[in-house]
Amino acid sequence: MKIVIDGRMLSWTGIGRYTLSLLEGLQSVDQHNDYVVLVRPSDWSTWKPEARNFTRVECDIDPYSVAEQTALPRVLKRLSPDVVHLLTPNAAALYRGPKVVTVHDLTLLDYDTSRGSRVKRLSTKLKRIPFRWILARQIATATRIVTVTDYIKQQLVQRFKIDPAIISPIWLAADSEHLAAAADESLPDLGAVETCLLYVGNYYAYKNVRTVVDALGVVAQSHPGVHLVLAGNANEFKADLLSQAQELGLADRVIMPGFVTDGQLKWLYRRSKIFVNPSLSEGFGLQGLEAMSQGLPVIAARASCLPEVYGDAAVYFEPLSSTDLAHRILALLRQPELLDELSDKGRKRIEMFSWRKTAEATHRLYMDVGQGQR
Rounded to 10 degrees, what is the CA torsion of 176, 27, 308, 274? Predict the structure, then answer.
């Protein structure tokens, strides 16, 4: 069979990691079928095929562009594939051939992700209108759908009334080997800090980071040495979060280093006491698994897919209650044996996930679609 994979987001943070890891896994599990990977010129050096049955084809069509809906379907048709895998639901909704579509989450349907100036925010909000139509069209015409958790599968079934038999939940995996290979890089501002709470990610409202800052205010009353590290580019959200910390008297306890390298992230995971994932909407919650792979205990919001992915290897709090979160943090800090227990559970939990398993399950799906099985 000839299988075309849309790799136009190779350099993006989340989807890029998914694409690269999936391609690596597929090259190890399938040496028989022919794979063609669409790559933008700017990403050409990001990935090079290692297996003979994998090739790159230049495709200079930007994600989320008009050409993605008009020109990309024609590109796919010219390639005459037996199966197309669109790794996000926004691509080539008008393509009518056999296709597998990955839906990572439905956050854009429920939460505002606009930021910046009033004009930029308005532009982002307006883009949500065609996205809703594109998503509905893509789901309606997909031969098979991949979701990264069963939670997202159930959301699709409930909202779009589609046959659950065509949806296959396929878990992702933490990139623990990549982190293990990275050399530790310390952050100078944290050299003297003994107890850190850690958050890694972006700062849209649905990420619920303000709740963590509020919780720190309660924790700090009895544990003045506790600091909160918010890692990742905060951009337009940074000033607001620092202002919140200032109002709570936490200006010297909330540290925002911005973008961190893999080496710095590894150092943070290993140096922190607790990783907090407060998000209200996730498709998978990969950072929590990464933290577990480094032995870091996890506290997470009891929301969306997080309980499915983390299982009994995390402590959960009511998503909008900073008081509940603070109490969970304090309980762990006061009982080091519970931290050790969570760390052990996390290391065992991480064994359930691997990119090899992700690739094998995805490969089976390609074979089903190629053989005409729906």
Answer: 10
